[in-house]
Specification:
The chain is an alpha/beta fold. The protein is 32% helix and 18% strand. Helix 8 packs parallel to helix 9, helix 8 packs antiparallel against helix 17 and helix 19 crosses helix 23. The site of 1-deoxynojirimycin (NOJ) has 7 residues, from loops.
């Protein structure tokens, strides 16, 4: 009897033991799935308290080093190419010291990394995969500056959404875009990544892009967006990337901050802190900027990642003595995640133990990151975005190609069209196609081509052939290079031009003459390209120049020597088809510049909304705000762009007076007086005539892109909210003052109809 009881006891002990062991194994294996808590699928995120319980429980089980690991981001390619070739290592993964990996793409690659993380790490917290999907992932859309010239918010949302679908199908959770830095200086190479010089338009485009990337937030066909580079990265001294930023608080608040705020309002989930300092305080160590303004005042509750090595660079900026000081400064300022330099992992655990960083600061940052992973459903399924079949189906699909073509032609700005030489007739006999970008696959993709492939690119040469078939002779000659000054191809180019009916010259910058750390002091066509144009001009045939570049350039020489000039920017994968659509009139150009083109570099900064001066004007023999050797004008002003049809503006109407709680309704009649249907971007500018601070001569406050059939008139209505008529003081207070405002409407920032209105009772 006793023996039987002992036997039963042993059985019970063994069974209970096995059960406990099994549970422990399960817990170790699937610590990310808390059985009692049942994490959300990430689909609805309806039960906030489930998320709270899950995150708190997980946080409670993490060691300090594992917590700091969640705040650390590494470049992942090292692990894929060999154990010692990158900063990321098996050992980091095994110790739970990797929260995120950047710039690795492709389901297979990412699966390998995630599997390794799940196998090696104790708590098995999924890694977040990030990538610079700036203007497309594999299907490359026009560079952001180009797209901004479409002023087509719906299209901009659609291309961001398409990029999100493609990137997420390839396993990416998070893009480092949009870049919403206002840029008033074309020397700065990163002007190519933004929406140009205007804050009002910049805000609308920032919102459109966030909406596009995050179109189906938390689902595996959408990505998290990242507003960057916070803040004022677009205003470095002399346009040199990474240089200090010095500006009045009023200008910061009025010109540079609003697009970031627009991203918060649009629900952006992450922010990136900038490399630069603002008035002496580095953005990445700026508690006021990140914790007070962004989090407390604006209510942002996602997480902030530093820019690449921006934490360690606090040391080079000279605001801390050593790496440890840099990591402490950044984290205490509110930078949750440290990109690439590994400083948080190296120093923050000690700093916490020494009381230099509060545990509550760490917990708050870790929580933000865990919540995002939770909402993405990664705790349910770390491989949720990794579906090879979907990748095959979605990447480079024909639908994306059509959108890339539409976006490219909608973004091209027609700057000159003498005697209506464009569009060209499809019945033309022969074309001389000349220039280093005429049959170039690689450069036309622009500076952030993500995983875009040259082989997918339709060059201009190919695009013309697609459009014209075999009936038209196309004589292609490269003519010259962008860097090599040799002129040995000139004679062949001359011959091709002389044997053809028309010359199409495709010239401009190499892709990496703009973009990060690609500031330029001279903005004319690089190398011997202007000479090439001169040679072609000497032939005497009509010349059409198609420009591809990432910034405004000084184009007087080109402008004087050609018949037509099309600013095509870097158009992306569908480059050639889109150029052909415009040149041969299948698409009527409708884009307008979002950045002013100066005559000379000496005019920079040359933005349209400059402030009034006590000595305005351009008079030759007087002391006014001018250069003695150049007029205060741009070659092509902000908002400028031609169409193959013409539009006439008339009958500008609005009330003479309006009050604080009203919207000011402005109407204008726009008539398509030409012979083709077309779309016009109607622009509304406002000037505050008398204010307690010096105000800009004009500011964009509204626009509408309207399609107008030939011969028809459309009455366009634009509304201004009174709130938008205010300005920021140096105390960073927003004030709206009563008084007179000039309301101006027209086709660009210079040719404007105007009326004066009075704002009462504020
Ligand atoms: C540095 C760039 O400034 C930033 O825009 C980019 O997102 C990161 N590198 C990551 O590649």
């Amino acid at each position: 009897m006793m023996k039987a009881i002992i036997n039963i006891r042993w059985h019970i002990i063994i069974i209970v033991g096995l059960f406990i062991g099994y549970c422990a194994a399960l817990r170790a294996q699937y610590a990310h799935v808390n059985k009692q808590i049942e994490p959300s699928t990430g689909a609805t995120f309806s039960d906030k308290s489930k998320e709270d319980v899950f995150v708190k429980d997980l946080l409670g089980r993490m060691t300090l080093q594992e917590k700091v690991g969640q705040l650390s981001q590494y470049v992942g390619s090292g692990l894929l190419t060999g154990p010692n070739s990158g900063a990321l290592s098996d050992s980091l993964l095994a110790h739970g010291m990797v929260g995120s990996i950047l710039n690795v793409g492709g389901v297979n690659n990412l699966r390998k990394l995630q599997e390794k993380n799940m196998r090696l790490s104790r708590l098995k917290i999924p890694v977040l995969f990030a990538f610079d999907v700036v203007h497309g992932y594999k299907t490359i859309f026009p560079v952001p500056l180009a797209e901004s010239c479409s002023w087509d918010l719906d299209m901009i949302t659609r291309t961001a959404k398409a990029a999100a679908i493609e990137a997420s199908a390839s396993g990416i959770h998070w893009t480092f875009a949009p870049m919403v830095d206002i840029a008033r200086d074309p020397r700065w190479g990163r002007i190519v990544e933004g929406a140009g010089e205007d804050t009002y338009l910049g805000c609308k485009i920032a919102e459109a892009r966030v909406k596009g990337f995050q179109w189906n937030l938390w689902q595996p066909n959408s990505v998290l967006a990242c507003a960057k580079h916070f803040a004022a990265y677009g205003a470095p001294q002399a346009g040199r990337d990474y240089a200090p930023v010095d500006m009045s608080p009023a200008t910061l608040a009025e010109v540079y901050l609003p697009p970031y705020k627009a991203c918060v309002n649009a629900g952006v989930q992450t922010f990136m802190s900038a490399f630069n300092d603002i008035n002496g305080i580095p953005a990445t160590g700026n508690r006021w900027l990140i914790s007070d303004l962004l989090r407390r005042q604006w209510g942002f509750n996602g997480f902030v990642v530093s820019d690449w090595n921006a934490v360690v660079q606090l040391k080079t900026q000279g605001v801390v003595e050593d790496d440890k000081g840099a990591s402490i400064l950044a984290l205490n300022a509110g930078v949750d995640m440290d990109m690439t330099d590994g400083l948080y992992n190296a120093y923050i655990p000690d700093a916490v133990n020494e009381g230099l960083v509060a545990m509550s600061t760490i917990d708050a940052s870790v929580e933000r990151i865990l919540r995002i992973k939770y909402r993405l459903g990664l705790f349910d399924d770390p491989y949720r975005f990794l579906d090879a079949k979907r990748e095959k189906r979605e990447v480079c699909s024909p639908k994306l190609m059509n959108l890339a073509r539409e976006a490219a032609s909608n973004s091209m700005v027609l700057l000159k069209n003498e005697r209506g030489i464009l569009p060209l007739s499809k019945q033309i006999h022969s074309i001389a196609l000349i220039g280093p970008l005429a049959d170039n696959r690689s450069e036309v993709l622009g500076s952030w081509k993500a995983r875009g492939e040259d082989n997918d690119v339709v060059t201009v040469f190919q695009g013309l052939k697609n459009k014209l078939g075999n009936g038209v002779t196309i004589r292609y000659v490269r003519g010259c290079d962008f860097l090599d000054k040799r002129e040995n191809e000139f004679s062949e180019a001359w011959r091709a031009a002389s044997e053809s009916d028309v010359v199409i010259a495709v010239v401009g910058e190499k892709a990496l003459m703009s973009g990060e750390s690609r500031s330029r002091a001279f903005l004319s066509l690089p190398c011997v390209q202007e000479k090439l144009i001169d040679i072609l001009r000497s032939v005497g045939k009509p010349i059409v120049v198609v420009l591809m570049n990432g910034r405004p350039m000084t184009l007087s020489h080109v402008d004087n020597n050609v018949d037509a000039l099309l600013e095509a920017w870097f158009p992306g994968t569908q480059c050639g088809n889109a150029v052909a659509d415009i040149l041969f009139g299948d698409v009527n150009p409708s884009a307008k510049l979002t950045t002013s083109f100066p005559y000379a570099e000496g005019q920079i900064p040359n933005f349209y909304n400059y402030k009034r001066s006590g000595r305005p004007g351009d008079m030759e023999h007087s002391s006014t705000v001018r250069h003695i050797d150049l007029k205060n004008r741009n070659l092509y002003p902000f908002g400028f762009g031609l169409s193959y049809t013409q539009f006439a503006y008339g009958n500008l109407q609005c009330n003479d007076r309006f009050e604080a709680d009203e919207k000011l309704k402005v109407t204008v009649d726009v008539t398509n007086t030409g012979s083709r249907d077309g779309a016009e971007i109607v622009q509304l500018y406002v000037a505050d005539k008398v204010a307690t601070m010096v105000r800009p001569v004009k500011e964009l406050k509204g626009f509408k892109k309207v399609f107008i059939p030939k011969g028809q008139t459309v009455c366009v209505e634009l509304n201004i909210d009174v709130h938008e008529l205010g300005f920021w003081t140096n105390e960073m207070k927003y004030v709206v003052e009563p008084g007179e405002f000039e309301i101006m409407v027209g086709p660009n920032s210079e040719e404007l109809l105007s009326r004066t209105v009075r704002l009462e009772n504020i």
